[in-house]
Design a protein that fits this description.
binds iron/sulfur cluster; globular; five-stranded parallel beta sheet; 16% strand
């Protein structure tokens, strides 16, 4: 089955792919039990879904997507801050993925419908250009992990125009892995670490993590072969009980990471504790601007009245959303009664259905799991209020 699936897929090197898939099968069969591992990167889930990689995995290997999408983990109050600013008449520039993410009372797209000015940008640099072309105040609502936070930091160090500021919802990945590893009910025996983020932080940060939690970590790239090779390495470590960190993406990731980018990141940002949507309070998981950058910090430049928003009723359907459990690896999209019914990419209820890196959105788009055929027979979804 796995061998046929590999033959049907187009790999750069089908012979190697077949050998890796066979090795994965041997390792899992040798373990004689189900093995669950987690990746923490939306790009990994996209590659797995796009290339149909799950079809080549042994049945007893479960590859779960954890909190790997910065849009999904942006917490309600952070969305609320952006919405409150926009409703107060400030122009908010942000990535398109952030528009439809539901806040406590409404999304930025809802605020836009009410007349708020929201500009969709593809990069922080584009938001700066926007500020240079106008005298309006432009607040860049910045989401993303350390990879994108470095780009935001670079812009702030370079000196943006005086009408530009940042509302940071940037997040830092290593601390959330600590939380997920210790979550009650988590079945995760090993982690695939996000290759992009590791280009900044380096592979070494995972060495202590692996030892502390007695779970192996493998830094993985994004080609289908990278993922297969990293899974073989990870499952090998799991079955031998070897809690080490290995770098399977050395062509991009150095052990110590990118020191210049790290210096830039920590010059501008400080890590503080805060909630990740649906997951938990994550100590040191949120990146906020340091005092030296108070003049470009939208939180200090404007009075942001989120309490007025909180007096509005939250949408009732959100209560049924199990995004948090999905990102913790405890549930899958098929476990949500709203999946593909009340919750679709056009009408997202939870954050995981909004972003192109969200698990529910990816599964919806690619039909990335055989169980998706069960959707049509799922229990009726609750009424949309
Ligand atoms: S920021 Fe990069 S490394 Fe992190 S989840 Fe997104 S794609 Fe993956
Ligand atoms: S299908 Fe929608 S409501 Fe359900 S967990 Fe996913 S995002 Fe949340």
């Amino acid at each position: 089955m796995a061998d046929a699936a590999v033959t049907e897929m187009r790999f750069r090197d089908p012979v190697r792919a077949r050998a890796l898939a066979a090795r994965l099968g041997e390792l899992v069969a040798g373990a004689g039990r189900q093995i669950s591992v987690m990746h923490v990167c939306g790009s990994h889930e996209q590659a797995i879904a796009r290339y149909g990689l799950r079809a080549s995995f042994p049945a007893d290997l479960e590859v779960i997507m954890g909190p790997g999408c910065p849009v999904c983990v942006t917490d309600l109050p952070e969305i609320d801050e952006a919405v409150a600013l926009a409703r107060a008449g400030v122009r908010v520039a942000t990535y398109g993925d952030m528009l439809k993410v539901p806040g406590t009372a409404m999304s930025l797209a809802d605020a836009q419908t009410e007349g708020a000015r929201i500009d969709v940008v593809y990069s922080v640099a584009q938001a700066v250009e926007l500020a240079r072309a106008t005298t309006d105040e432009i607040v860049f609502f910045a989401s993303g992990f350390e990879t994108t936070a470095v780009a935001t930091a670079a812009v702030l160090v370079a000196g943006p125009p005086p009408n530009f500021s940042v509302l940071s919802a940037h997040k830092y990945i290593p601390p959330v892995m600590e939380i997920v590893a210790e979550m009650p009910g988590a079945r995760v025996e090993g982690f695939l670490a996000a290759g992009h983020a590791a280009t900044i932080t380096g592979a070494a940060v995972f060495e202590q993590f692996a030892a502390r939690h007695r779970r192996p970590v493998v830094v993985a790239g994004f080609e289908p072969l990278d993922i297969l090779a990293a899974l073989v390495a990870l499952v090998e470590l799991v079955v031998t009980g070897d809690a080490r960190a290995i770098n399977c993406y050395p062509r991009c990731v150095a052990r110590e990471g990118n020191k210049v980018a790290q210096a830039l990141l920590w010059k501008v940002f400080r890590p503080i504790g805060g909630r990740w949507r649906g997951i938990a309070h994550v100590p040191s998981g949120n990146l906020r601007l340091r005092d030296e950058f108070a003049h470009v910090d939208a939180r200090r430049r404007f009075t942001i009245d989120v309490e007025a928003l909180w007096r509005m009723a939250p949408p009732a359907l959100v209560e049924h959303c199990v995004c948090g459990d999905i990102m913790a690896g405890i549930a899958a999209p098929r476990d949500c009664t709203l999946f593909g019914r009340a919750c679709t990419p056009e009408t997202p209820v939870g954050a995981c259905m909004v972003s192109s890196e969200g698990t529910c959105r990816i599964w919806h788009q690619y039909g990335g799991h055989p169980d998706l055929v069960a959707i049509g027979r799922a229990a009726p979804a609750p009424e949309v209020p």
